[in-house]
# Entry
Amino acid sequence: MSGNWLNEQFSLAGKTALVTGASKGIGAEIAVAMAMAGADLVIVGRNAKSLEQTTSKISSLSKDVAQIYCDLSDSSSLQRVTSELEGKRLDILVNNAGTIFRSPAIDMPEDEWNKVLDINLNSVFAITKQVGKTMIEAGEGRIINIASLLSFQGGVNVAAYTTSKHALAGLTKALANEWGSKGVNVNAIAPGYIETDNTAPLRQDTKRSESISSRIPLGRWGQPDDIAGVAVFLASKAAKYINGEILTVDGGWMAR
# Structure
């Protein structure tokens, strides 16, 4: 090994990464972390003001960044994005965009069910299919899906979200089987309880929040940047023999 071996293993220099849901939270932290590791970025989000903040952080690191504004629940908007990505050479894809709707299953409106599945699953497949074509042609690429603890568990009052995240874990494994031999590694990260907008209702419920914290061996909720380093690792040379993995980053929740 050369003296620069460690840096080379984790460097993303010369790579271009696409991160969806990069306006804030986990997606923004991943995008900035990848820029810090040397990658140029294409970031997708629907909140122009927040996306601009992520762009500013990446630009301050002297890395190129392009913005794509898109509501992934809207089929015409999604089609515009996939058309824009056609033939574009990307080395890394992070499917982070997601939404949740909390309701007893029996009361869930059909349009909310469809919206959750459209953003969390259908848009992932559409974007991954498009980006995957160029990765396969190039003979290399890294795809990282952001799954959830609810890729393994049932949850309460989140039937659509749980369904989408179970399906995302299955899609990760299916594509890992199909594309691994073509040089494309497909993995997922399953975050535990992270302080994001999606978990705000849980954190505002003092009793529920304390109950969750008490079950986490590390004794705290995660932060978005707890996920960012793992994403950089999976995108790097250091993870070249990891494929089809659903990596939990949960403070020990699943070990309890």
